[in-house]
Amino acid sequence: SVKCLYRRDRENMPGSRTEVAHAEEEGVEFLWLSGPASIEGGDKAERVQANRMELGEPDADGRRRPVVDPSSSFALDADLVILALGFEPEPLPAIFGEEGLAVSDWGTLECDDNMMTTLPGVFAGGDIARGASLVVWAVRDGRDVAEKIDTYLVEQRKPSAAAA
Length: 164
Hints:
This protein is an alpha+beta fold. It has two domains: 3-77, 3-Layer(bba) Sandwich (FAD/NAD(P)-binding domain); 94-157, no CATH class. 22% of the residues lie in helices and 25% in strands. It is built from three helices and five strands. A hairpin with a 6-residue loop joins strand 3 (34-40) and strand 4.
């Protein structure tokens, strides 16, 4: 399941209400007035430590500013944590430590029609492949790329004609 920690409540969020509604239709659970404090785990995320938030005084835009409630920490088990903090792209491919990934002029990973990057067996979808967009497109890409990966793995397992 997908959970989204959000520092404000639904009424005070600056984000797109339509995008949130689409995400909820896809099964995303929003944890309103919640914010991550830390991510625990070794080489991969295992748990997110979080805090409940309260709405304080309004900020310069008139929205009530989220304030951490220090007595309300909680933990969420996690297999994967995605930080969604804005629309500024990360420096690709440096964040992956892989110089063989081709990057487009728009800062996205180049992919073929099967959603495979320029590295064999590495697939991409969502914002990293199409640029900043709605979360529903990222969810759709995730489903599509899962099918492409499955097809790729099945093909890799087939004995080659040369070996026969």
